[in-house]
Amino acid sequence: MKTTMNMPLSILKSLQKRMPCEDVLANAASQLDVILNCIYDHAILFLDLEGNITSWNIGAEKMHGFTEAEITGRNFASFYLAEDVADDLPQKALAAARDTGRYKTQQWRLRKNGDRFRADILIHPVHDKLGDITGFVKITRDVTLQHQLDLSKEDYNQTQKQEMLGQLTGGVAHDFNNLLTVIDAGHQLVAKYSDDSRISRVLEVNKVAIDKSRKLIAQLLAFSRKQVLKPTPTHINNTISVFDVLIEKAVGSNRSVQWNLAPELPQAAIDSAQLQSALLNLIVNARDATPDGGIIKVFTETKILKSPNFKVPSNVPAGRYIVLGVADTGIGMSEAVRERAIEPFFTTKDVGQGTGLGLSQCFGFARQSGGTLVIDSVEGRGTTVRIFLPALEVEEKPSQSDHRTILLVDDEFAIRSLVGEMLRGLGHTVVEAEDARDALQQLQTNASIDYLFTDIIMPNGINGLELLEVARSIRPGLPALLASGYPRDVLRNIAQLQDDVMLLQKPYTIDKLSGHIRAAGQLKH
Question: pTM value?
Answer without folding.
Answer: 0.40
